[in-house]
Amino acid sequence: MNDTSFMILPDKEKEQKTLNYRNLGSLLSYTSDEKENLLEIKCENGYVSVIFYREDIVRIIMNPKKVPSKKTSLAVVKEPENVLVEIEESPELLKASSRKLTLVINKSTVNVSIYDPKGRLIVSDSDNGMGTNEKQEVICYKRMDKDDHYYGFGEKTSFLDKRGERMTMWNTDVYAPHNPEIDSLYQSIPYFMTIRQGYAYGIFLDNPSKTVFDMKSSMDTYSFSAETGPLDYYVFAGPTPKNVLEQYTTITGKMPIPPKWALGYHQSRYSYKSEAEVRELVKTFKEKNIPLDAVYLDIHYMDGYRVFTFDENKFPNPKKLIQDLKDEGVHVVPIVDPGVKEDPEYFAYQEGVNGNHFCEYLEGNIYYGNVWPGNSAFPDFTNNEVRKWWGDKHEYYTKMGIEGVWNDMNEPAVFNETKTMDLKVMHKNDGDPKTHRELHNLYGFLMGEATYEGMKAQLDGKRPFLLTRAGYAGVQRYASVWTGDNRSFWEHLQMAIPMCLNLGVSGVPFCGPDVGGFAHDSNGQLLTRWTQFGTFTPYFRNHSVLESIRQEPWSFGEEYEQVIKKYIQERYVWLPYLYTLFREASVTGLPVMRPLVLEYPLDKHTFNLSDQFMIGTDVIVAPILKPDTYHRVVYLPEGTWVNYWTEEKLTGGKHHLIEAALDILPIFVKEGAIITQGTVKSSTETKESELSIHIYPKENGESSFTYYEDDGSTFAYEDGAYFEVKIQVKMENNRLNLSFHNLSDQYQPDWDKAVVTLHKVREDLKIAVNGKEQLNVEFTGENKITLPIKIQDL
Length: 794
Ligand code: MIG
Known about the structure:
The protein has 794 residues and is an alpha+beta fold. It folds into 4 domains: 21-252, Immunoglobulin-like; 266-338 and 381-412 and 435-588, Alpha-Beta Barrel (TIM Barrel); 597-666, Immunoglobulin-like; 687-793, Golgi alpha-mannosidase II (Immunoglobulin-like, Sandwich). The protein is 18% helix and 30% strand. It has 12 helices and 52 strands. The strands form 10 sheets. Strands 1, 6, 7, 8, 9, 10, 11, 13, 17 and 18 form a 10-stranded antiparallel sheet that branches. Strands 32-31-29-26-22-21-20-34-33 form a 9-stranded parallel sheet. A hairpin with a 3-residue loop joins strand 36 and strand 37 (619-621). Helix 5 (384-393) packs across helix 8 and helix 10 (524-534) packs parallel to helix 11. The chain is globular and about 80 Å long. The protein starts with 21 loop residues before the first strand and ends with a strand. The relative contact order is 0.08. The mean pLDDT is 96. It binds ligand MIG. Residues 270, 298-299, 335, 408-409, 469, 484-485, 518, 543 line the site of ligand MIG.
C-alpha cells in the first residue's frame, strides 16, 4: 500500500448516491403445499418462498424475477424435515407457525417478522424489507436493536463484536495487510448470530457470489445483500447462542473428529527444502525432547511446482522419508495448490485437458492464470466428476503413507490485478452452468471436498487430515482452517483471538493462526507468548516465510526454548481434555475455543471481550499479548475460579490483575470443573500411560464431566467403538461423593490407571468413590488429595 495524502484531496470526494431501491411491493397471491411447510408467494415485484427445515429453522428465498429454485448450494447438507406448519390468514397478515416459531408476513409490504411461541420477537425486517437495488442486487434489511451484538461472519479482522462493521464475503489472497480495514480474507462464511439480552438467533445467506453484511451504515437497520443470484437465507430461531450453533451446523454440517495426530504440535516453514533438512529438523525435536506430530512440505518439494510430484534431486526417496518419520511418530503434510502447470509433457495437465477437467470459458477455451508453476489451468471442482478425478490423484500421496494434505491458494489466488480467476469463466456445475462470479466463494470448499473424500477413500478406514486456506460455509466438514499470511506482530497475535473465536462461532471449530507469525521476523518473546496461546488454539502450527528469521522452538536461545518446550508439552497434557471437546464439537457444532459471550450471554463484560477466551465451559485462558509485559487484567464471570498455576481462589463477576512471568500463561478453572489430562509425550503416537482427573469441587454443590476417548485414528467411533465415562462429583458438609458411570466401553483405552486429584479441599474431607468410603486417602499438602483409581472402577 503506497497511498499518500493525495488519496484524500478534497476534490476526490465521491458523491454519496443513494441507490434506487425497490422493495417487493404487496403480496398478490400465495400457495402452500399439502404439508404446508412450503409457501410460495407472488408479490408485485418478485417472488418469495418459505420452507420450514425444522421446527426452529426456516428458509426464505426471494427472487425478483421468477419463482425461486429450491436448489441449495453444496454447503447445505440438510433436507427439510416434515414440519407441521399451520397457516393463518387475515386481511393484513399471512402467518405460518411451527411449534417453535411463527413467521408473520405483512401483506402490503411482504415484510417478515419471526416470533417465538410466547410472542417474543426474534427478528424482523425493517421498513425496507426485501428487494433489489439499481444494480439489480438482492438485499434484505432487518431491524437492529440497541442491544444487538453480532458474531460469526467467518474469518474477519478486528474485534469480536461486529456491530459497527460492514463486511464483504469474497475469498481473497491477502498477503498484506491484515488489519481492521481489510475486509475480505481467504474464507467466506456468510453467516452470523445476533445476541440480544441473552437471546440469540442466526442468519445464513447461502450465496457463494460476493455478499455484503452491513451492520454499520445505520443505527437501527442492518442489511445483507448479494451481487448476483437470489436472496436465499435461513433463520435459526435459537433461543440460546448454543442452540443457534447447533441449528446452523445442522444445515451446513459438523466437523468429523480429526485424527489425534492433527491435534498435536506441527512444525512448518516455507520451505524445508530437502529430505536432509527435514530429517535434521525432526532429529533436533527428538534430541531436545520437544513433542512433534507433523512436519509440512511447502511448495519447494515439488518438481517445478507441479502438484503430485516430488523433486527427485532434493527428495530422492519420499516414501522412505515418510515411513521413517512415521516410525518416529511424525506425519508429513505436503502442500497442494489447485493450479496445474500448463505443460504438455506433464501427466496431470494431460489428464486434465483430455478429461475436460479444467475451468473453461463459455466458448470452450481453457482459462489460464499465472501462479507458482507459471501459466496454469485450474480444475473445475463444481463438477462432481472433476472432484473425483482430483481426489483419486491423491493416491500418489496416500500410497507413500501420507495422511494429511495442505490446500493453499484455493480462493483461487491468481497473480494478476483482480487476484483471482476471470469472473467470466463458466463453471460446468454438474449441468447447471454458472459463472465464476456466481460461484467464486465455493472454489476452495469444493477443492476441500474433493481432497478429503479422495483421501478418505484411500486411507482404508483412517481419518484424513486436511488444512485449507479458503473455504465457504460448511468447510468444517472437510478441513481445518488456518488464518493465512499473518505477520510476526504483537498486533497479529492479538487479532488472532477474535478471529479464531468468530470462526468457531461460524461453525469452524478446528482453526488457528500461524504461530510466531508468518511474514516479518519473529523474536523470542513473541514466539514464546504466541506458543503459549497456541497450546489452546484448536489448530497448533508454527509456520514462517522464506526470508524471515528462523522460528523453530529453539531459534531464540535457551531461556525461550525452555518455555516454548514447556507449552508444547502442556498441549499434550491437555489433549485428553481437548479431545473430548473436539468430540463434542463433532456432535453439537459448539467450538472448542469459544468466546465468553457464548457461556455468559447476559454479561456485558463479555460482549466484546477479545483478549481472552474459553476452552469448553470451565476453563478461561488469558494470554499475554504485549512485549515486556508480565501482568494483565483478566475478567472472570460469575462464580468462583481457581488460578491453574497458583491454586488461588478468585471471585468472579469482576476483573483481576494477574501476574504472568515469561513462563506463565494465565489459565483459570471454574469451581466444579473436572479436567482430564494426560502425560507429556514425544507425539500423539506414544501410548497414554495414565489418565489424570483433576477435580475442583464446589462447596455444597455438584458437577459432572463426560470424558470421551477412542482410537484417535479410524472411523470406528462412528460404529460405537469408543470409551465414555461420566464423572460426577457431589460435595456436602465436607463429604465428597465421586462416582463414575460408564456410558460406553466399546473401546479400551491404553491407560489402565487413573489418578484423581482433588484440588482446594480440607485434610479431613470424607471421600466416597462409587459409594465406597475411602479410608487410605493421601493428602499431599497444598490442599490436594490424590487417589488412584483402577480402570475397572470406571
Ligand atoms: O503466495 O506456499 O499462505 O502459508 O507458505 C504464497 C507458499 C503461497 C501462501 C500461504 C503460505 C505458504 C505460501 N503460500
